[in-house]
Every structure is written in structure tokens, then in C-alpha cells.
Specification:
Helix content is 29%, strand content 21%. With 139 residues, the protein is an alpha+beta fold. The protein has a single domain, classed as HIT family, subunit A.
């Protein structure tokens, strides 16, 4: 089921304030987070409008986590972070998704919890396209 008012479901201008659609995966949608204080930060959102993990069958949950793992591997290959932080929130969004936040020693927020939207680093379309190409090449 899709929610017409949800950017993850519709993959349209509703994503524009915070993300750029990259591609569909087996059980999810991959979105580049526009704020790139953490190079390569992405969102993996479940393909349907589920609000909670408990709404998925075991097979759906396993497929979703396989996508999260696939993206994490691609981020490691493309950007070589020291660690990836995973955040699953959604108090206001209502769509099951994980933020994958590459973290780098001696850089922004190492050793702490990542800010949801620090609003520090936005890029040109060309720079976003380059990051997306690196992620796609490693999926």
C-alpha cells in the first residue's frame, strides 16, 4: 500500500526538501540524504507504507534488512567510513526507514550520536550526482 502524501512512497517532489531518489531495491527505496555532513548518508525506506517493523512478515523484514545490509556494503566500498551508524526513527514521518550514516574518525560528530539534520553541508546537483554514481556502482 502506498500513501499519496509520503515522499518515500511516491518518490516525487515530496522527497525534495530532504532527499534524492536513487533507486528501488528488492524490498525498499534508496534515497540520498541531501544534507551531506556525513559523506554518503542515505535512507533505506521500506517499499510500502508500513509504520512499524512489526507490521512486516518475517520474509518482508528479512528482505528489508538484506537491502539495508546491501547499501551498507556499498557505502563501505564507495566511501570507506570507519563506521556506519544506523538510525530508525519516524515519530512524525510514519514510514519505516533507516538512516545509514557513514562516520569518519576525526570528522564531524565522531564518537557521538548523529544529528538528524545538522543543515551544515548541502551540495551542487553535480556533486549529488557523483555521490549517487559511486553508490550505484557499488550496489
Amino acid at each position: 500500500m502506498k500513501d499519496q502524501n509520503c515522499g518515500y512512497c511516491m518518490k516525487n517532489e515530496l522527497l525534495d526538501p530532504f532527499g534524492i531518489y536513487i533507486c528501488d531495491l528488492e524490498a525498499s527505496v534508496l534515497v540520498l540524504f541531501k544534507e551531506q555532513s556525513h559523506p554518503g548518508r542515505c535512507i533505506v525506506a521500506y517499499k510500502d507504507h508500513a509504520g512499524e517493523m512489526v507490521e512486516l512478515t518475517d520474509a518482508e523484514r528479512n528482505a528489508f534488512f538484506a537491502d539495508v545490509n546491501r547499501v551498507a556494503k556499498a557505502l563501505h566500498k564507495a566511501f570507506h567510513p570507519d563506521k556506519i551508524n544506523y538510525g530508525a526513527y519516524g515519530d512524525t514521518g510514519g514510514h519505516l526507514h533507516f538512516h545509514l550514516v557513514p562516520k569518519y574518525r576525526d570528522e564531524f560528530e565522531w564518537g557521538g550520536v548523529f544529528q538528524m539534520n545538522p543543515e551544515k553541508k548541502f551540495l551542487s546537483q553535480e556533486e549529488y550526482d557523483g555521490i549517487i554514481a559511486r553508490i550505484r556502482a557499488n550496489l
